[in-house]
Amino acid sequence: MFSKACEYGIKATIYIAVKSMRHTRVSLKEIAEEVNSPVAFTAKILQSLAKSGIIDSHKGPTGGFEIEESKIDTIKLHDIVHAIDGDNIFVGCGLGLKQCDATQPCPVHDKFVGIRENLKMMLQNTSLYELATGLDIGLTHLKR
Amino acid sequence: MFSKACEYGIKATIYIAVKSMRHTRVSLKEIAEEVNSPVAFTAKILQSLAKSGIIDSHKGPTGGFEIEESKIDTIKLHDIVHAIDGDNIFVGCGLGLKQCDATQPCPVHDKFVGIRENLKMMLQNTSLYELATGLDIGLTHLKR
DNA sequence: TTTATTTAAGATAAATTTGTCCGAAATAAG
DNA sequence: CTTATTTCGGACAAATTTATCTTAAATAAA
Ligand code: FES
Ligand code: FES
Predict the structure, then answer these.
(1) For residues B67 and B79, is the Cβ–Cβ distance under 8 A?
(2) B111: helix, coil or strand?
(3) Which of residues 15-74 of B touch A (CB under 8 A)?
(4) Helix or strand holding residue B124 (H, E)
(5) What span, in angstroms and rounded, lies between the C-alpha atoms of A100 and A106?
(6) What does DSSP assign to residue B76?
(7) pTM to 2 decimals?
(8) CB-closest option in A96, A114, A135 to B7
(9) Which residues 62-101 in chain B have a CB closer than 7 A to strand C?
(10) Nearest atom of ligand 2 to the alpha carbon of B112
(11) Most CB contacts within 10 A, which of A9, A97, B96, B135?
């Protein structure tokens, strides 16, 4: 469904959000531990999330990653997935045709667009805030 | 969403079904042409679909692939996807946790299981027969 | 029986994704 | 200013997926 990079990226972003709500920056090392992800690979993903403007990064001692508090509510799961995996999952054909539209549909088109739209809506309607809150109050978990 | 192998496998199976409904065997070469897939890779996929019992293969002149006509109606998209991509898409955690269940859910669990179940139902309710019929009457297409 | 045709099987190779390493750049603090 | 800390950036490596090649096995027909 999502790439490994995207899975790590989502988990990392949620963790950063939890800490940011407490006005605490968090280091790459800590994130990778909490998310159970390879440190150096996580660094790459965080780098790209920073370039996409989803998270902020700061170098040096006391540095680390954070998310502007006002953004936590407006950032949606959709934004994170889109930043890392692109838009193929939202607009691409389920059977890999170069173009998906109803004028020359693949055999699963009619059935697939519903699922795809469903997923898209879910991601667009899910805010980072609610994900972070669920984690913060111990309702959900990042490792297992 | 699905692997390349699965995309090719689905399209190939649908094409074989169309031909089988006309009691015609079809060769690897023809399948790969119609499906726009690499020949040798397609061979591997068909081989595994044959081992899974979804399609039948026959060697030698007049050989090729076919599907028992009585099966075309009972084979579901779910069976093809499961045979090629396994069951991770049906039971796996959206964020890659080793185990997905409600006792220790990841942050997206509640929202993800709906989508996943939705997809599963769609695949279980979609028969090879209806996919093949749509293609046969020119309503849908395998290439673009 | 010989030949031509077609899939099976295993080894190999290319491409992509995932993951690592290391030096550079920034920056906070002594 | 110097040092310690932390992210950045690029090169590199491993693993997985996708794709190819070659030889064998089966089998239909001449
Ligand atoms: S054309 Fe395949 S999903 Fe739309
Ligand atoms: S635990 Fe992640 S989807 Fe169920």
Answers:
(1) no
(2) helix
(3) none
(4) helix B109-125
(5) 8
(6) B
(7) 0.96
(8) A96
(9) 62-65
(10) 3
(11) A9
Mind listing the pLDDT tens digit for each residue in B125-143? 999 999 999 999 999 999 9
- Cα–Cα distance, B102 to B90 (Å, whole number): 15
DSSP string spanning B15-33?
A: HHHHHHTTT--B-HHHHHH
Q: Domains of chain A (ranges plus CATH)?
A: 4-136 (1.10.10.10)
| Nearest Cβ partner for B118 among A93, A96, A115 | A115
How large a percentage of chain B has pLDDT more than 70? 100
User: B107 and A1: CB-CB below 8 Å?
Assistant: no
The Cα A137–Cα B10 span in angstroms is 43
Residue at B20: amino acid letter? S
Nearest to B134, CA basis, from A110, A35, A16, A82: A110
The amino acid at residue A125 is: N
Q: Per-residue pLDDT tens for A19-54?
A: 999 999 999 999 999 999 999 999 999 999 999 999
Q: Which residues are CB-neighbours of B75 under 8 A, at least 6 positions away?
A: B13, B17, B54, B67, B127, B128
Distance CA A60, CA A47 (A): 15
B64: three-class secondary structure by DSSP: strand
Per residue in B53-101, pLDDT tens? 999 999 999 999 999 999 999 999 999 999 999 999 999 999 999 999 9
Question: Do the Cβ atoms of A35 and A12 come closer than 8 Å?
Answer: yes
- A12 Cβ contact partners less than 8 Å away, ≥ 6 residues apart: A31, A35, A37, A42, A45, A46, A49
Q: Is some CB atom of chain B closer than 8 A to the CB atom of A142?
A: yes
